[in-house]
Amino acid sequence: MPKRCAWVPLEDPAYLAYHDEEWGAPVHDEALLFEMLTLEGAQAGLSWRTILYKRAGYRKAFAGFDATTVARYTPARVERLLADPSIVRNRLKVESTVANARAIVALGRSGTSLDEVLWSVVDGAPKVNHWRDVSQIPAETPESQAMSKALKKLDFRFVGPTVCYSLMQGVGLVNDHVTSCFRYREVAVG
């Protein structure tokens, strides 16, 4: 069995697949960035396992994370989503997803993208860290603080520095696999 980051529950196939195939790999796809921004915000106060098992529900509820479609969600649609057990039924989190879709659409109208905004925090290239133990990994960094500030200025919600750092880890803006993890080198070389 390959060596993995210590936070990965080895008995959970979905969690293993997320770590082994997705977490830390650089993402530039707008819909996937929107999805991960939503999921990281939804995770606030909850476990990643909870969110991971609701991921399919989120994809269905939020139109495959098509920002243009979600930006048109009405208050009535939000109320229906708050009754949907396949997602986290927290009003602030659901409303933030709609608000974030509107912010993404506004970015497009201004000639930029979520991809450009997020990746600008690391000057367009993943930051490769060299953690030996998961206890060394911070909850936030100056980069995640800068991302949070930039996103809030653009009317994004649920984008505090800790959520932003989790997003950075998930979509590969940083490589936070521990150095002994088999994915560390795979992600570092792209």
Straight-line distance between termini: 22 Å
Please trace the helix and strand order, writing H or E for each element.
HHHHHHHEHHEH
CATH architect. name: Orthogonal Bundle
CATH topology grouping: Endonuclease III, domain 1
Nearest-integer average pLDDT: 97
> Main sheet: which strands, in order across?
1-2
Unreliable spans are none
- Portion in beta strands: under 5%
Major sheet characteristics: 2 strands, parallel
CATH class reads: Mainly Alpha
Give the CA-based shape.
globular
Give me the CATH superfamily.
Hypothetical protein, domain 2
CA-atom Rg in angstroms: 16 Å
Number of DSSP-assigned strands = 2
Bin the helical content: 55-70%
Number of helices: 10
Number of domains: 1
- Structural class of the helix and strand makeup? mainly alpha
Characterization of the model:
- With 190 residues, this protein is mainly alpha-helical.
- The protein has one domain (13-189): Hypothetical protein, domain 2 (Endonuclease III, domain 1, Orthogonal Bundle).
- It contains ten helices and two strands; from the N terminus they run H-H-H-H-H-H-H-E-H-H-E-H.
- The protein has helices spanning 13-22, 30-43, 48-61, 67-71, 75-81, 91-109, 114-120, 142-153, 161-170, 182-189, and strands at 127-128, 174-175.
- The chain has a two-stranded parallel ribbon.
